[in-house]
Amino acid sequence: MINMHLVLGHVVADHSFTNNYKIRSYKGTKLLGHMAWSVFAILAFTFDTLLNNTRGMIVLGSFMAFHIWGDFERVRLNGSGKKRMIDLLELLLLAGAIVANWMVYDRFNQSFLTSEFVYYLMGMSVVSTGVTYLFRNFYPGPEDISDIDGISERLAFFIFLLSGKIGLAYLSLALGFLYRILKLRKYNPTWWMSPLLGILISYFWKITLYR
Is 211 helix (H, G, I), strand (E, B) or coil? Predict the structure, then answer.
């Protein structure tokens, strides 16, 4: 199992508990607040392994500076109307997290967070907010879509499937579909796209986690 603690810290900082679309417009204290949150989010997954050695501190400090630069750059690009460039920036930031993680991945063998648990948390982030990121940025429709219902549905399927409760996993999808029929009524292609992506990602994570 690959150690990906630093990558998870980056994903949590900018995606998992944050509306990535909204932070593009942050200014002043809100932007500074997000930066502070990012630092603590990254530290949460790395402090016990990277703060007790020189190489770890250098890599961690360098990545945090890179991450904060990305926060400034995201806001600048959004203000200039270069929204497609923000997607490239997000890829660059993710690539930076992967490279930084690779430079210190062996240190995470000593972490109180096991690599399996971190990989599981990464799967939860991808199946929930990762799919929502695709909908917000590449699917025609409102860019500020919250997708709360879709996130809950996919996350429930992921948790039940990886715990071996296949019946409950598919029941959660059925209840999600029933909710859409009764509450939303107006059909949207995301009705089937959301659960399908949830199924594919969840099975991929189950296979790779327990292989």
Answer: coil
